[in-house]
Design goal:
Elements lengths: L18 E8 L5 E9 L4 E11 L2 H10 L6 H28 L8 E12 L4 E5 L2 H8 L3 E3 L3 H5 L9 H10 L6 E6 L2 E7 L12 E8 L1 H12 L17 H8 L2 H4 L23 H20 L9 E4 L6 H10 L4 E3 L10 H14 L7 H4 L9 E4 L2 E2 L1
Parallel strand pairs: 1-4, 4-6, 7-10, 10-11
Antiparallel strand pairs: 1-2, 2-3, 4-5, 6-12, 7-8, 8-9, 12-13
Helix pairs in contact: 1-2, 2-3, 5-11, 6-9, 7-9, 9-10
The protein binds adenosine-5'-triphosphate and ligand AH0.
The site of adenosine-5'-triphosphate has 21 residues, from α6.
GO biological process, one term: amino sugar metabolic process
EC number: 2.7.1.170
Family: Belongs to the anhydro-N-acetylmuramic acid kinase family.
Length: about 400
């Protein structure tokens, strides 16, 4: 089915100039899908546009959760259909609103569709993001860039994190002239060290990135199981809890933390860490998992080549004041939500895949040795145009 969509364009992606790209991200927390428009030529950000969010229904979330860790089979098929449908709902909404907002406005040129990671084991089976980008290209009569991670993994990279090339563009957009860090606290945490004194993201030394460790996923899992809540809203459960230092030390003894970056994680790689807090009260257990997230970041910061001027925090974890306070205490530099510099911390990942879609379309790299450990710079991704592949 092709939706009636006044904002859609069917032509191939323009090879030059600033494009209007619509990126989407369905993260490891399985809460929902984000979508956001960025104006970019793939190198420099020229502006930010509308954004929107579509939550997964509880039944959808349960099916996605059941498919986590699977590489194939009926659960994976079902998850893929849910992801494609949820994105189609959201894309229809954003594209319609975008078209209504300005008749003279250039239509969205390209969609960057990350999909939903179900399994990630780059050195073993690879990485799996489900959802059908070709179907979305046909449905919205608009080119879709997707499957961003596979080429990087095939060439020896971790396949994640991929937002760092966008973080570099953000640092330039913000006119920063000293090294700084972007810290995403989603289900998993990831850190990008950016040196904006270098000209291009692919210059050696411009970027160092890696997953710091588990972030909100174990906290969510614990409070869902024990308290029937989706998350520790505002850190209300952890606040007043006592951190069990023995459990924290056992956690930090995990070999992942001794590994040099780049390195990446699957959502459930640390699922068993909940057993480290199983004897504790709800408050103490939640406080301890929250401290583990902060301690993993502090450990990761030791890899930064120079102290950053600031750590800008994005992702849902920045809404948790207990976690933010623990970060402020344990890091030797200022820590601030990314809103402090005028960016939207709930939409940064969706915006990243808008920017990366244009980079893929332009043949520019989306990862490099400093971000994923890939042997050389790689511009991964598949481009589907309405009626077939580009
Ligand atoms: N007000 C809040 N208080 C506490 N925690 C919050 C709050 N809002 C969001 N979070 C946490 O942030 C999580 C969502 O974060 P986010 O949307 O960045 O994750 P994601 O994009 O799914 O994950 P990832 O970046 O790992 O792919 C929620 O599941 C919750 O744990
Ligand atoms: C395999 C995968 O989907 N990884 C995600 C996940 O969520 C956070 C962290 O782990 C990061 O490595 C990555 O997402 C962001 C968007 C990235 O690629 O930069």
């Amino acid at each position: 089915m092709t939706r009636s969509n006044p904002s859609a364009r069917s032509s191939a992606i323009p090879k030059t100039g600033v494009l209007r790209a619509l990126g989407t991200m369905s993260g490891t927390s399985l809460d929902g899908v984000d979508a956001a428009i960025v104006e970019t030529d793939g190198v420099a950000i020229h502006g930010f546009g509308a954004s929107a969010y579509r939550a997964y229904e509880p039944v959808e979330r349960a099916q996605l959760a059941a498919a986590l860790g699977h590489w194939q089979g009926p659960q994976v098929e079902a998850a893929g259909e849910i992801v494609t449908r949820a994105h189609a709902d959201l894309l229809a909404q954003v594209l319609a609103e975008d078209a209504e907002a300005g008749a003279d406005r250039r239509a969205v040129d390209v969609i960057g569709f990350h999909g939903q990671t179900l399994a990630h084991a780059p050195r073993v089976q690879g990485t799996l993001q489900v959802g059908d980008g070709a179907a979305l290209a046909a449905e919205f009569n608009t080119p879709v860039v997707w499957d961003f991670r596979s080429d990087d993994v095939r060439l020896g990279g971790e396949g994640a994190p991929l937002a760092p090339f966008f973080h570099f563009a953000c640092a330039k957009y913000l006119k920063r002239d000293k090294p700084l860090c972007f810290l995403n606290l989603g289900g998993v945490g990831n850190l990008t060290y950016v040196d904006p004194r270098l000209e291009a993201a692919e210059d050696p030394g411009a970027l160092l990135a890696f997953d710091t460790g588990p972030a909100n996923a174990p906290i969510n899992d614990l409070v869902q199981a024990r308290c029937g809540q989706m998350m520790d809203e505002g850190g209300a459960i952890a606040r007043g809890g006592v951190v069990e230092t023995g459990a924290l030390e056992l956690f930090l003894a995990e070999s992942y933390f001794a590994r040099m970056p780049p390195k990446s994680l699957d959502r459930n790689d640390f699922a068993e860490m909940i057993t480290l807090v199983s004897e504790l009260t709800d408050r103490d257990a939640t406080a301890t998992l929250t401290a583990m997230c902060a301690a993993a970041v502090a450990q990761g910061m030791e890899h930064c080549p120079e102290p950053p001027e600031v750590v800008l925090v994005t992702g849902g974890g920045r809404h948790n004041p207990v976690l933010m306070e623990m970060l402020r205490v344990s890091l030797d530099c200022p820590v601030a939500p990314i809103e402090s510099v005028g960016l939207d911390g709930d939409m940064l990942e969706a915006q990243a895949f808008a920017h990366l879609a244009v980079r893929v379309a332009r043949g520019l790299p989306t990862s490099c040795p400093g971000t994923t450990g890939v042997r050389a710079c790689v511009g991964g991704g598949v481009v589907s145009v309405p009626g077939g592949e580009d």
